[in-house]
Write a structure and sequence with these properties.
single chain, 470 residues, 85% helix, mainly alpha, globular
Length: 470
């Protein structure tokens, strides 16, 4: 029994959770950069369409993030409190609901890609490319939904290696097929951006199949075909209580980013392409920090479920101690070498000049993002999701989005003003989240609940001892 406890403790250690997530994210970043580099060989307009479309897809994924994210936290908490069967049931329910939402989104994007792109202010010259890319990749949203819920469920059982290996395989296949479609190699037709879209869907389909196989064996009792008829209202309610604020929070961020992308589209395709290239470079800054923050969320949810509130409280500060220096150093490296790297993607002088200025602002942006990732994930892990939702709704839309429009578009200051508003938003929310975590509200509530359970158990024991023997 002691050996099993030690094994579970090691399984949920921060490092063992974090390193596969980091490798997964790092390789996705490298392969994503190669992907962007390949698409840039088609045209800068193709890059702008891919960047814009990905923002749209990210916005729509928030519709099923409510269930997937909430389920992940509940699964880790249930495993921490040794309620394995309930964790298993939660995973099954989340899979069914998330896939249903993904199917609806697939049908929507296949049916109306051009009106959606036009409504979001995409420049008219980009609409033909966007119509094809959105309908093909968007038609595979059911696969994105399945991958999201399967990967989240698997990670929160403590298995971060399975999703890592799957993501590596998916991205390698995607890059090989991209190369074939873009350059007409390996017997592939030279289909350009249409081929890239087809490559994306096929690689995601293969990844979904692998993740589903891993998912079936992720719990002590293997999931079988008959188990997919299970639906427990009480457990689904637990998912939604934690999940709906997470969904709103995620939606708030993604839709605010989508709004900002539409503001950039108003400024012109140069600004839109510059932001797309910067998105790729910015990912480099917080890869390890993001991995640590996600691992901390899994670990803290597990510790919280097990009633280890002191360990849960201190875990986030360990993440910040490591994560903040890393993102600062990485952002400074980008300031020094970022323009040279960008030269691999585009030769457009206007885009390069814009990105060079944005790299300095990125040095200010990344520490704020690191604090939000670490402390925000920790608050979510203990169920304090309404707080992170509330500050997101207020400051993302008033500061990041509203002020971006006022200063960037209305007053004509441009993309520099938009970045400055995004930086301000990150720091305001980061500071508020820090003081919320220091307050230990949900951790104290957990301690009170555990104390009541101990008192009730003691009372039952006393009553049993006081009862006359039969």
């Amino acid at each position: 029994m002691m050996k099993n406890k030690d094994s579970e403790k090691n399984k949920f250690s921060l490092w063992l959770l974090a390193w596969p997530i980091f490798i997964e994210q790092f390789l996705q970043f490298l392969l994503g950069s190669v992907d962007t580099l390949m698409v840039s060989r088609i045209s800068d307009n193709a890059v702008a369409v891919v960047g814009f479309s990905n923002q749209l897809f990210n916005a729509l994924t928030t519709l099923f993030a409510t269930v997937a994210s909430g389920a992940g936290i509940v699964i880790a908490q249930k495993i921490g409190s040794r309620k394995e069967e309930e964790a298993r049931t939660v995973a099954i329910i989340a899979f069914k609901v998330t896939v249903a939402i993904g199917l609806f989104l697939s049908i929507l994007l296949i049916a109306a890609p051009e009106p959606i792109a036009g409504m979001l202010q995409l420049p008219e010259e980009l609409l033909p490319l966007a119509k094809v890319y959105i309908s093909v990749v968007g038609g595979g949203m059911i696969l994105t939904a399945a991958m999201a819920v399967l990967g989240t469920a698997i990670r929160n059982t403590g298995n971060t290696k399975g999703p890592m290996m799957t993501a590596i395989g998916m991205n390698v296949i995607h890059i090989i097929m991209n190369y074939g479609f873009i350059f007409g190699e390996f017997g592939f037709p030279q289909w350009g951006l249409t081929g890239v879209a087809i490559s994306t869907v096929i690689s995601r389909l293969l990844a979904t199949i692998v993740l589903f196989i891993i998912f079936l064996g992720s719990f002590q009792r293997k999931i079988g075909p008959r188990d997919f008829s299970i639906f427990d209202r009480k457990l689904f309610k637990e998912i939604l209580v934690i999940g709906w604020p997470l969904g709103v929070n995620s939606a708030s961020w993604v839709f605010s980013q989508l709004a900002i992308f539409s503001f950039l589209a108003m400024l012109g395709s140069t600004e839109l392409a510059a932001r797309t290239y910067m998105n790729t470079l910015e990912s480099f800054c917080f890869l390890l920090g993001f991995s640590l923050a996600l691992a901390a969320q899994i670990q803290i949810a597990h510790l919280y479920g097990a009633g280890k509130t002191k360990e849960a409280y201190h875990a986030v500060f360990k993440v910040l101690k490591v994560g903040l220096p890393l993102v600062i150093v990485n952002a400074f490296i980008l300031v020094l070498f970022g323009r040279n790297v960008l030269g691999l993607f585009t030769k457009d002088t206007d885009i390069l000049n814009l990105c060079t200025a944005l790299l300095w602002l990125n040095l200010l942006l990344q520490p704020g993002k690191m604090v939000n990732m670490a402390i925000g994930n920790s608050l979510n892990a203990v169920g304090d999701t309404k707080y992170t939702m509330n500050i997101s709704l207020i400051f993302m839309w008033v500061v990041a989005t509203g002020c971006s429009y006022v200063f960037g578009v209305s007053l004509g200051i441009g993309i520099i003003a938009i970045y400055s508003c995004m930086i301000t938003d990150e720091y305001v929310r980061g500071v508020l989240s820090f003081f919320r975590w220091r307050g230990r509200k949900f951790l104290r509530m957990k301690e009170d609940d555990l104390q009541k359970e101990r008192e009730q158990e003691q009372n039952r024991c006393n009553e049993a001892l006081a009862s006359p023997a039969l």
